[in-house]
Write a structure and sequence with these properties.
heterotrimer; A mainly alpha (500); B mainly alpha (546); C mainly alpha (470); B: 546 residues; mainly alpha; C: 470 residues; 75% helix; globular
Chain lengths: 500, 546, 470
């Protein structure tokens, strides 16, 4: 297979997996799980191959004719591989988790089929080489995640699904409008390193471009949970835990944040964005979201809802980093794509494992849980520490780079914001940790069971991802780490990188 | 070789922590004691460097070697005592994990070669202490842990900001000491907050008297003996006295230090609980260190001499206070306990022929002949009082069941006694201290304490006990007035946020409902449509005609 | 260029074969459904084959203009044939039960003949004949097999259809009086102006809009499409209304001069927007599934009117018009067939109470999803292609409001399609009924929906076909 087809193959593998899973009858559980895992492993292998080739200096783009004058393009640049890699690794882990979680669930072919489509769409978003392709897969992501949100089929899930669709289709409409306008104004929407519009010889008027930017950001901002477009996220928590994990760590939220990065850097470009003063409003919105999410999180007793608002807050670190017009901050923002993904997925895995094994959903019921499920809560603790931004976790690396970049570009308020946000994170995570480890469990609860504390498929994944959280930080300096990869990316965008 | 020792010093406790997490049981305690060995050895051979595999460097500054040595001894002794103090408790495994993490962090920050590594060690240690304070699970422990963690988090954030500011200004993460450039002013103040909280800088000290009694005795020993020093180490690394400091920096420290010294000791004298009294003593002693450091910043003392004095103080106070805390649960009959505790107690007052004498003279030598040096001397009296009180409280304390634990206690006492022999110029200094003039000065505090102590004993502890948490209590009283307002404010903010969030959803839902209405059958219309048709035809006809 | 014989044969066969099949159904009543289905598939084959004869023309029985019946196949006509034929074929396969009703098969094949005659028509009067044939067969089909409501709706449809045809006839008569010719090409070259042009255009437009169900003349459509049997609804929504709009397009593009279309453009744009809003809101309020889908048709026809409103300024708008027509035809027919199956499985078709019919209905549900997406204009379907083309071309002509309008309309469509999606995720209260009528129905629906999806990638060939010189 010629490597130029690699990007397409990655999307196709997941898509085909989905179709095959749909066609597998409900009762053939083992076969379906095997197929699922096969697909996930194959995808991971293909992504790994692509990463290898690209690191050796290749670059791959697949073009497919679509609309007249506007083809579909899948390409492999550093940013797409970062997101792709994250998605592929986490899909594999989440698939294992989901198999364990839904052991007794209904509608499994439908679940796993749409699950695969969702990952396919995410891969497409990651590999998209122009705005149109991005749009196509972005909408596909909306459609394929809807059945996952409403999986349980009860009234609450259906209501959540309606709200989810309302928000995400609205966002999709804005994105579509922005895409239409851009193509009408400029003729193309290719993602080019350094910014398509920055480097164009002729470009549309400033007013028009500002409008397009606002519309596009509003479009991706829904998925990225920018305030006030974030309302769908806490509501979507009724979905099963693997869905929350995937939605909040990998697919939907990251697709939105990824879109912001692409629009600012590869569509508009650093220089143009600064000229048009597009970035300060984005900083303000991101900052507001960071604070808002934290404030709301403090008031939640339901564990998943608290995590949801935490996501709202944390994902905006990415937007904030990108909007500071400084390479180091950009690096921090981009790397948080990966870091927040790993940390948040750990937290959701734990939440799901707790709910499935003990039935506990509220924080106030979590007293003494550390004795019952030490490994799971250990993973939770590690991830929570990461969220607060204490070393030696991935969250600390992000905090360092974003704050550092902010200081170097003279925007000290951002560092203060990061510190305040850390404080908030401590305020809503540390009490949970205290309860879990130091409070006495309610009388009559089962203490350490014999054997493993939870089903192995529920128990393994969070431990693995918690370990990754720490490893990502410890090996941040090395070339192999996500940080090293992101540095290469920022280097090309800005022309230089300074790391303290 | 040195580099490997440094690596081992930081990683050995971590390895044992992992074993503890996996459930090794009471066997971890001897292992923890062994894990302190590399650190001790590294302290004996300072000036090595190592590169960590994941980036970052390790380095042991010769100035901090004594602190590392003290830490190694104290943690080892604490580990031995923990086996009996905590062994068999329901939460032993949890305690062991936090113990090990604190130990790792403590060693780690001392051998850190640059700021980020330092921060990692400091943070790990700070967080782990939370686990030690909250261990007992009682209401007192919960409250102490709550106060502690609030301050710890604030300290963490301040320290982070300080380090970041320095790194940005200096374009690298190496210590200002190595770099040679002074830190930015804001960074210095932030470092003061971050490190000061740990060192017991008034008024950020309020967690200290609450945390020590709440934690098990070995943990308190390690806290007072080793971990508090981390604050001083941090300041020395981040804001080197030999490079410039902001105006008022040193002066503020001196004021705070002196306040802590005297108020702490006096407050400690009025305590009813042994560990609380010892905690206030620690506060008082750390105040001395802070005063000396502040004097160096303010230019009132030469930086080199001050650093040397602080190094000696670190090991002297560490061993002595560590021994005292371990004595609180020594497992020996109370006569033996009190007798053995008297040794480090006397050392702390600066009794002749003790390490305390060395430390005191080092301070006074550094501070010269000014009022500060006299204050140090007077402080000895206050220390003597609180020591007397502590011994009295130790006498009336029920002895704990025996076991190995006494080994740790006794070991530290012996180490405290033996220290002068290992300190360069130690024995000579001690002997010169036997000269009549200095002897009198050195004996005075103890004599005073004895006399006062007799009065105190007679008073039969009639003085009302001062609640630990002093300033905190004041703060609480003040906060008590403000608290309802704050809580109401926080709740309203939360509610308002909730309502705003719901608003956008409600708007959308309302719009959708207005648009959709209630589903109904489509009306069966002929008339309206027919009318439309006719109207259109008429209009078309008109258009044609016109 | 193929030999003179082949275009004759193929084009003629396109009209003659269905008629012959109609006779066949009368002669062999017990085999009627099979004959009708076979004829539908043969029709599809012929259309495919006819691709090679684009640009050809034939005169039946050798009589040439101005008296003879001419059939002309250009790119535009072929595209309309190309999306109608699969609808007939797949719907026929899916609706054997309906075709087995009395007279249904005959009407079906006659309908095909009429539709083909319209698309191939080169002459105004023959277009009238085709329109009449289509009206009559469509109206009658509406009444087949369904209850009293359907009969009432069918009767209304008949009157409306006749009324519309009458208006059209008046227009044709007026043109004949003014020019003496009926052939489209001849009439165009006559250069009509002023009232002589405006009167027939106004009359014909009114009549065709009425037949086509463009708002505000859409009142007959929801009852008719909503009460007929599923495959009939499919044919009605997908093809029959398109015939009227096809004639409208031909009239304004080929007969009238460009200035006339430019003058009338605001009317079409206004009507288009009206239809989109009225249809969309009504669909959102609809109680019954078939009514929802029918109102959706009203809205989608609005898009076509809007596209027509830009055809004068931007050639791409014509492509958009055709794309809307094709995408809607394929998606709507698939939707009707799938909806019919789902309603039958549920036992009712009230949208708020619909539930998931079960795993046996997989293809039908997939068809529902894909069709819904195509109608809402989600990429990468044909609906998206149409909206994109229109938005880009309108913007190029300076009308920037079209893009937001289309996006908003798409959201409105998505809103009521989402009601269906919600229904499909609702668990049924008891065991679902087994799939009646075999798997063929589901797969037919899915095939149609997939064609709508595939259309999204065929933008370039479509444009080439439509914009090529006849």
């Amino acid at each position: 297979m010629s490597p130029a087809w690699l990007p397409l193959a990655i999307v196709a593998t997941t898509l085909v997996s989905g179709v095959v899973i749909f066609l597998t009858p409900d009762r053939m559980v083992r076969t379906r799980s095997a197929l699922n895992l096969l697909g996930a492993v194959a995808t991971l292998g293909l992504v790994g191959l692509l990463v290898l080739r690209v690191s050796q200096g290749g670059s791959y783009a697949t073009r497919m004719p679509f609309l007249p004058g506007a083809p579909l393009v899948l390409q492999s640049d550093a940013l797409s591989l970062l997101f792709c890699g994250l998605s592929a690794v986490l899909w594999l882990i989440t698939t294992l988790y989901a198999v364990g979680y839904l052991r007794h669930g209904a509608h499994r072919p439908r679940f796993f089929g749409f699950f695969a489509f969702c990952v396919s769409a995410t891969m497409g978003v990651a590999l998209a080489g122009n705005l149109l392709t991005f749009l196509v897969f972005y909408e596909m992501l909306t459609i394929s995640t809807y059945p996952l949100v409403t999986h349980r089929g009860d009234a609450a899930s259906l209501r959540a699904g309606r709200i989810y669709l309302a928000y995400t289709l609205g966002g999709g409409a804005m994105l579509l409008l922005g895409t239409m306008l851009l193509y009408a104004l400029h003729g193309s929407g290719d993602f080019v390193v350094g910014g398509l519009l920055s480097q164009a010889e002729t470009r549309p008027g400033d007013g028009a471009l500002t409008l397009v930017f606002a519309v596009l950001i509003a479009g991706v901002g829904v998925k990225a949970a920018l305030v006030p477009l974030h309302g769908w996220l806490p509501v979507a928590m009724v979905a099963p835990a693997p869905v929350s994990a995937l939605l909040h760590a990998v697919a939907v939220v990251k697709a939105g944040a990824f879109g912001i990065v692409r629009i600012v850097y590869d569509l508009f470009g650093q220089t143009l964005a600064e000229t048009l003063h597009l970035l300060p409003p984005l900083s303000v919105v991101a900052a507001a979201t960071i604070l808002w999410g934290s404030i709301r999180a403090l008031g939640q007793d339901d564990l998943k809802r608290r995590l949801a608002y935490s996501t709202v807050s944390q994902v905006s670190y990415i937007a904030l980093g990108v909007s500071l017009a400084h390479p180091v901050a950009a690096l921090g923002g981009i790397i948080h794509l990966v870091h927040q993904g790993i940390m948040k997925i750990t937290l959701f895995f734990c939440a799901g494992a707790i709910a499935e094994t003990t039935g506990i959903k509220k924080i106030s019921d979590m007293d003494g849980l550390g004795r019952r499920m030490p490994w799971t809560m250990g993973a939770f603790t590690v991830a929570a520490i990461g969220m607060i931004g204490l070393p030696p976790t991935a969250g600390f690396v992000t905090k360092w780079y974003v704050s550092s970049g902010a200081l170097e570009s003279g925007q000290t308020w951002v560092m203060v914001l990061m510190l305040v946000s850390s404080g908030f994170n401590a305020a809503y995570f540390l009490p949970i940790i205290r309860r879990v480890w130091f409070a006495d469990p309610p009388p009559g609860t089962l203490l350490r069971p014999k054997g493993l504390e939870a089903s192995p498929l529920l128990f393994g994944p969070p431990v693995v991802t918690a370990a990754l959280t720490v490893l990502a930080a410890l090996f941040a300096e090395s070339q192999l780490s996500p940080l090293g990869w992101a540095e290469a990316l920022v280097l090309r965008e800005f022309g230089f990188v300074e790391t303290p | 070789m040195n580099g490997d020792l440094l690596l081992a010093a930081a990683l050995a406790p971590l390895a044992v922590t992992a074993l503890a997490a996996l459930g090794a049981g009471r066997a971890v305690w001897p292992l923890f004691a062994l894990a302190a060995l590399p650190a001790g050895l590294a302290a004996a051979f300072p000036d090595g460097t190592a590169d960590m595999p994941a980036g970052g460097t390790l380095r042991l500054d010769p100035d901090f070697a004594p602190a590392l040595a003290a830490a190694a001894l104290i943690w080892a002794a604490a580990a031995v005592q923990s086996r009996d103090s905590v062994g068999g408790d329901a939460g032993e495994r949890r305690y062991a994990v936090f113990f090990g993490l604190a130990m790792t962090g403590n060693f780690g920050l001392l051998v850190a070669g640059e700021m980020v590594a330092f921060y990692v060690g400091f943070s790990v240690m700070s967080l782990a202490v939370f686990g030690l304070v909250a261990h007992k699970g009682s209401a007192e422990a919960r409250r102490a842990a709550w106060v502690y963690i609030w301050l710890a988090v604030v300290g963490e954030l301040a320290l982070f900001a300080a380090i970041l500011l320095i790194a940005t200004a200096h374009d690298g993460t190496s210590f200002p000491t190595i770099d040679g450039t002074p830190p930015p002013e804001a960074a210095a103040w932030l470092a003061l907050i971050g490190c000061g909280i740990k060192a017991g800088l008034v008024p950020l000290h309020v967690w200290l008297p609450l945390a020590h009694p709440a934690a098990p005795a070995p943990a308190s020993a390690a806290l007072s003996g080793a971990m508090l020093k981390a604050g001083v180490v941090g300041l020395l690394l981040l804001v080197p006295p030999s490079l410039g400091t902001p105006a008022g920096f040193g002066e503020a420290m001196v004021v705070a230090g002196l306040t802590g010294t005297f108020a702490g000791a006096l407050y400690g004298t009025a305590q009813r609980d042994l560990k609380t009294a010892l905690a206030y003593s620690s506060l008082s002693q750390m105040g001395l260190a802070i005063t000396a450091l502040g004097a160096a910043y303010a230019g009132l003392a030469p930086a080199g001499a001050a650093a040397a004095a602080l190094a000696l103080f670190a090991i002297h106070h560490g061993l002595a206070k560590g021994a005292l805390f371990l004595g609180a649960e020594s497992g020996l009959p109370r006569g033996a306990t009190v007798a053995l505790m008297a040794v480090p107690a006397l050392a702390l007052t600066g009794f002749p022929l003790t390490s305390g004498y060395l430390s005191k003279t080092a301070f006074t030598d550094a501070l010269g002949a000014g009022p500060l040096a006299q204050a140090i001397t007077v402080a000895g009296f206050a220390t003597a009082l609180v020591m007397a009180r502590s011994l009295r409280l130790a006498w009336s304390k029920k002895p704990s069941p025996g076991g190995w634990r006494a080994t740790g206690f006794v070991g530290l006492v012996l180490a405290s006694v033996a220290l002068p022999a290992f300190w360069s110029g130690g024995p000579e200094k001690l002997l010169s201290g036997l000269a009549p003039a200095s002897l009198a000065v050195a004996l005075a505090p103890s004599a005073f304490a004895l006399a006062a102590g007799a009065l105190v004993i007679r008073a039969r502890l009639a003085t009302p006990p001062a609640p630990p948490g002093d300033a905190l209590a004041l703060g609480r009283a003040a906060a008590g007035a403000v608290r309802p307002a704050l809580v109401w404010g926080a709740r309203s903010l939360g509610r308002a946020a909730e309502r705003l969030d719901a608003l956008s959803g409600a708007l959308a839902a309302g719009a959708a409902r207005a648009l959709a209405g209630r589903p109904a059958e489509p009306p069966d219309r002929w008339v309206g449509a027919g009318g439309a048709l006719v109207a259109t035809l008429l209009a078309a006809g008109l258009a044609v005609l016109i | 260029m193929p030999t003179a014989a082949s275009p004759d044969a193929v084009l003629a066969a396109l009209v003659v074969l269905p008629l012959a099949a109609a006779l066949g159904t009368l002669v062999l009543p017990r085999l009627a459904p099979a004959v009708a289905t076979a004829a539908s598939w043969a029709n599809l084959a012929l259309v495919a084959f006819a691709f090679g004869t684009i640009g050809g023309e034939t005169w039946l029985a050798g009589w040439s203009a101005p008296l003879g019946i001419g059939l002309r196949l250009d790119g535009l006509a072929w595209v309309f044939l190309a999306f109608s034929a699969p609808v007939f074929a797949l719907a026929a396969s899916a609706g054997r039960a309906t075709l087995a009703e009395d007279g249904a098969a005959t009407l079906w094949t006659t309908l095909i003949a009429g539709v083909n005659a319209i698309f191939l028509g080169a002459d105004l009067f023959n277009l009238y004949v085709g329109l009449e044939v289509v009206s009559l067969s469509a109206a009658a089909l509406t009444a087949v097999g369904a209850g009293a409501a359907a009969a009432r709706a069918a009767l209304r449809y008949l009157f409306v259809g006749l009324g519309g045809s009458l208006l059209y006839l008046m227009a044709v008569a007026s043109i004949y009086r003014a020019t003496g010719a009926l052939d489209i090409g001849l009439v165009a070259s006559m250069g009509l102006q002023g009232p002589a042009l405006a009167t027939p255009l106004a009359l014909a437009t009114a009549g065709l809009l009425l037949k086509g169900g463009v708002a505000p003349f859409h009142f007959w459509l929801p009852p008719a499409h909503g009460n007929a049997a599923p495959i009939v609804s499919a044919a009605l929504s997908a093809v029959v209304v398109k015939t009227a709009l096809y004639v409208l397009l031909r009239l304004w593009l080929d007969v009238a001069p460009q200035t006339a279309l430019a003058d009338a453009a605001p009317i079409f744009r206004a009507l288009g927007l009206l239809a989109v809003v009225v249809g969309g809101v009504a669909a959102l309020r609809a109680l019954r599934l078939k009514a929802l889908i029918a109102y959706s048709t009203v809205a989608q026809l609005g898009y076509m009117a809007l596209a027509l409103g830009f055809a004068a300024e931007a050639p791409g708008a014509t492509v958009a018009f055709v794309a809307f027509a094709a995408a809607h035809a394929l998606a709507k027919s698939g939707l009707f067939v799938a909806a019919g199956m789902i309603a039958k499985a549920n036992g009712h078709d009230e949208v708020p109470r619909l539930t998931d019919p079960g795993t046996a209905y997989g293809p039908a549900k997939a068809a529902l999803a894909i069709s819904g997406g195509a109608l809402a204009g989600l990429p990468p379907t044909g609906g998206f292609l149409a909206k994109w083309t229109l938005a880009q071309d309108a913007a190029a002509a300076g009308a920037w409001w079209v893009a937001p309008a289309l996006v908003a309309a798409g959201l409105l469509t998505a809103a009521y399609m989402a009601r269906l999606a919600t229904a499909m995720m609702r668990d049924p209260p008891e065991n679902a009924a087994a799939d009646e009528g075999g798997p063929l129905r589901g797969w037919s629906a899915l095939a149609l929906a997939s064609a709508a999806l595939l259309l999204g990638f065929l933008g370039a060939p479509l444009a080439a076909l439509v914009e090529a010189e006849p």
